[in-house]
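G., the chain you wanted modeled:
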Amino acid sequence: FQFFWLSLNVWLFGKTFLLYNQGLQYYYLHQMLGLGLCVSRASASVLNLNCCLVLLPMCRVLLAFLRGSQKVASKKTRRLLDKSKTFHVTCGVTICIFSVLHVAAHLVNALNFSENYNEEFVTLNAANYRGEDPRKLLFATVPGLTGVIMVLVLFLMCTASTYAIRVSNYDIFWYTHNLFFVFYMLLMLHVSGGVLKYQTNLEEHPPGCFNPNKTLRQNLTVPKAFEELFPDYTTEPFPEDLAVPEPFVQNSFVRVCSEEPKFQSHFPETWFWISGPLCLYCVERLYRYIRSNKPVTITSVISHPSNVLEVRMMKDDFEARPGQYVILHCPRVSALESHPFTLTMCPTDTKATFGVHLKVVGDWTERFRDLLLLHSNQDTEILPIFQQRRYPKLYVDGPFGSPFEESLNYEVSLCVAGGIGVTPFASVLNTLLDGWKCYKLRRLYFIWVCRDIESFRWFADLLCTLHNKLWQENRPDYINIQLYLSQTDGIQKIIGEKYQALNSRLLIGRPRWKLLFDDIAKCNRRKTIGVFCCGPNKISKILHKLSNSSNSYGTRFEYNKESFS
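Predicted structure as tokens:
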């Protein structure tokens, strides 16, 4: 996809380059600036397109509406919505690449405006005189100064978006990325300068034509036929009321014009490109702010092994579907920072409680845990409603859609989780516990890989309860549970007699993915199986590759992957 999008932008760059290189309305400007004109305008067209589209993947409410309202009926088309983050990053990279071209071209243009100053076309010049310092064009004009500041803002946003900075200090990424609003405001000012102009009277003054009424003729070569008919032309202007001789008009080397060329700045097309998406994004952010303005009621906080915290809460009129995620904001932790977490429990008709599990890694989650728990070494804290004053205010924005909403829409689904990546599937399992007959899903393969045995206790009770329920309903084949312990010193078991059903499904080592896919394909011939993965990139790449490979059983695997936008 990234290669296709980059190729599309290169094609747009080439078409715009030819337009400015061959267009007659840019003839005089091209004579002054050369290829710098073509490169700057071509790169600007690509930047307009990408600055327009880069905001759309961040409209989470719009994406959730398109997915949940069934406005997009095709399952394949809905899967494209899951590529929103990839599309956002691709547009961002494209903006960086073509911004370099745009800046380089305008540096050349500033130099050419100064060196190629033309007194015949004063309105066409950006410089005030020949030899003017090009730095004045960069720092003393609105287009130049806004362009310099935008380059600095874009540099901060791009460098802070790298994986190393996002992992080491997420705050830097968060705060610098919100400079996008400053970038867009500067962009709207940048294009209003009207530095590059085009000719408006091509019919009255074709480029390269001869104007007999021209008073500045020091660089003009007068045709020989015209000198013979009007020998005094070199000292006096051509009479305006005298018709031009027919032999001169018919001269194949001369084109006569009736007036001087007129130049005009382009209307800022960038406003058309970015105003719509920018307004849509701002309206959505306002809607999200109003929707999440009321804090939730935290009903319980549970500390699980391996630094995992479970938060259960309630909120009026909150509805969510299995697989969706929410964004948590705690002002006492950070005034502006917020983070997405997948729902592990969704509200139903019988209970209004919903919850999330979060891994305590990083400053934000550590401060959040310390505020929620009275003592950080305390395993569990479940308080009654009337004592909720000790909990900090917590705001929930969402819910938002994710690929795992589709897991219940396949007849057969394969769900693979790595560590804390099990959270999206927990809400699916909780939903099946309330009732599975109303969904299309008839067989679920659940694979969970963890490094330590204690991690399985996060949802051990849920798995055992669902397993026992299906056995009582005579559907033991509805769910196939396989737990893999990747790092161990020997045979281990999940402590507790009630976990005997899980201990029999606990395997040591890592899954043999190829054999697993072959076995699933053999048991589900000529069916379409949804593959859902939330875990390390290494596992994701393996599953993606196996999903795209063919098999002899006519089984087709459709790959889906969690990606917070």
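The chain is about 40% helix and 15% strand.

Shout if anything looks off.
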